[in-house]
Automatic annotation (TrEMBL):
Matches recorded under Gene3D superfamilies: TolB, C-terminal domain
Sections of the chain in a coiled coil: none
Keyword Signal appears in the UniProt entry: yes
Keywords attached to this entry: Signal
Protein name: Oxidoreductase
Organism: Paractinoplanes ferrugineus
PROSITE patterns with a match to the protein in the record: PROKAR_LIPOPROTEIN (PS51257)
Superkingdom of the organism of origin: Bacteria
Cleaved signal peptide residues: 1-28
C-alpha cells in the first residue's frame, strides 16, 4: 500500500471553523446543529486500499489547547470527551459546547489520590458501556506505592477496585478500555523490572481483564486471576478492530517498539526477547519499529486500518491490517514532527480520530498552545467525506 499524506495548513479554534475546515477539504457539510444537541460532526467514511491513490489530504483541527500532558480520552453519550491530565490529576470535559477557543474545556474534578512522578499519575480512563444507567467512570492511576484501577461517578468519591499493580519511575502502563464483551481491560507495565512480565503472580507487564468490580472473569486463562496476557514491557494503548480482534501497543524496550495482536493466555516475550524471537512459546509482534521512530501509546481502528500515536517517533503510524491480523504493505507515517510528541489516539463517535500531544513533559518542546487535542479527518475516506 502506497499512501501519501499532506497536512492541511489550517487549524480551527471554534466549532464553526471545524465545520468550515471539513467543507474546505471537500467533505460534505453536516446539517445544522439542533439547539442543545452535541456537535453534529460528519459521519465516517474511511477506506484505505493497497493501490496508490495519490496525495491524500488530512484535515487537522485543534479542538482544545492549553492542556498539560493529557493522557486518556473517552467519550460520554452526549459526545463530550473525558480527558485525564497525568501530572495534575484532573479529569477534564472537552465539549460538546464550544467557544472562541474551540471546544469548551472544563475541570470535572481533581483526584487527590493521584501521586504523579515519572510517567505515572492519572493515566487511562474508560466510560461504562451502561453509563446511561450506572454513570460509572473508570481510571488507571498511580499512588506513592502502586498503580491502581478505580471506579467513580463524576464529582464523586474514587473507589479503588484493583490495587498492587507495580509502580516505578517509568513503565507504569496505563491503558484502560472496555472490550466488545463489555468487560474492562487494562494494560500494565513491568515497572522497569523485566522479571515481573514473566511472573504469573505479578500484575506487572500484563494485560488484565475484569468485571466492573475489578474481579477476575470466569473464563480468564487462569481461574481467580486477572491476567489475560503476559510478557509485556509497557502497554499504554489497547483497542479492538471491527472483527473484534484485540490490539495493543508496546513501548519502552531498548530496541523495538511493537504492535501486537492480543490473544487469550498468550505470552508476548518480554523480557526474554526485544521484538521478534525464535521461541515458539512466545508470540512475535505484528509490527515492530526502531524505538526512536515509535514509543507508541494510543491506538485506534480506522475500518481495515489501525493508527497509533507515537511519542519518540512524533508521528502517527497507519497500518492496513488483513483479516488474519497481519500488516498488508508498509506502514505509513503521518504528521511526522508536525505536532511534536503524540500520545492519545481514540476513535470519536463521528468516525474521526482524536489525538493528543504530550509536549509539556520532559523530552518535549512545547509550542505556545500545547498541549492540544487534535481532530483528524481524511479527505479520501474519513469522517464527513461527501
Amino acid at each position: 500500500m502506497i499512501v501519501r499524506f499532506r497536512r492541511a495548513r489550517a487549524t480551527a479554534l471554534s466549532l464553526g471553523a471545524v465545520l468550515a475546515l471539513t467543507t474546505a477539504c471537500s467533505f460534505g457539510p453536516p446539517d445544522p446543529d439542533e439547539q442543545g444537541a452535541p456537535p453534529n460532526l460528519p459521519k465516517p467514511s474511511v477506506s484505505f486500499s493497497s493501490e496508490d491513490q495519490g496525495d491524500q489530504e488530512v484535515a487537522v483541527t485543534v479542538l482544545a489547547k492549553g492542556l498539560k500532558v493529557p493522557w486518556g480520552m473517552a467519550f460520554l453519550p452526549d459526545g463530550a470527551a473525558l480527558v485525564t491530565e497525568r501530572d495534575s490529576g484532573r479529569i477534564l470535559q472537552v465539549g460538546p459546547k464550544s467557544d472562541a477557543n474551540g471546544l469548551t474545556v472544563t475541570e470535572v474534578q481533581k483526584l487527590t489520590e493521584v501521586q504523579p512522578s515519572g510517567d505515572g499519575g492519572l493515566l487511562g480512563i474508560a466510560v461504562s458501556p451502561k453509563y446511561e444507567t450506572d454513570k460509572a467512570v473508570f481510571v488507571y492511576y498511580s499512588t506513592a506505592k502502586d498503580n491502581r484501577i478505580g471506579k467513580l461517578t463524576l464529582k464523586g468519591k474514587l473507589q479503588p477496585i484493583v490495587t498492587g499493580i507495580p509502580r516505578s519511575a517509568d513503565g507504569n502502563g496505563g491503558a484502560l478500555a472496555f472490550g466488545p464483551d463489555n468487560l474492562l481491560y487494562a494494560g500494565t507495565g513491568d515497572a522497569t523490572n523485566g522479571t515481573l512480565a514473566q511472573n504469573p503472580k505479578s500484575l506487572g507487564g500484563k494485560i488484565l481483564r475484569m468485571t466492573t468490580d475489578g474481579k477476575p472473569v470466569a473464563d480468564n486463562p487462569v481461574k481467580d486471576s486477572l491476567v489475560w496476557s503476559s510478557g509485556h514491557r509497557n502497554v499504554q494503548g489497547i483497542t479492538w478492530g471491527a472483527d473484534r480482534k484485540m490490539y495493543a501497543t508496546e513501548s519502552g524496550q531498548p530496541r523495538n517498539g511493537e504492535l501486537n495482536v492480543i490473544e487469550k493466555g498468550k505470552n508476548y516475550g518480554w523480557a526474554k526477547v526485544d521484538g521478534a524471537g525464535n521461541d515458539p512459546a512466545l508470540v512475535n509482534p505484528m509490527q515492530t519499529w526502531p524505538t526512536a521512530d515509535s514509543y507508541c501509546a494510543g491506538i485506534a481502528p480506522v475500518e481495515q486500518s489501525l493508527a497509533t500515536a507515537c511519542l519518540l517517533g512524533q508521528r502517527i503510524w497507519l497500518l492496513n491490517v488483513t483479516g488474519n491480523g497481519t500488516v498488508l504493505g508498509s506502514p505509513q507515517a503521518l504528521l511526522t514532527k508536525e505536532y511534536g510528541r503524540l500520545r492519545g489516539l481514540v476513535l470519536a463517535p463521528d468516525g474521526s480520530l482524536w489525538a493528543s500531544t504530550s509536549n509539556q513533559e520532559p523530552g518535549g518542546e512545547p509550542a505556545p498552545d500545547d498541549d492540544r487535542i487534535l481532530r483528524l479527518v481524511f479527505s479520501s475516506g474519513g469522517a464527513g467525506r461527501s
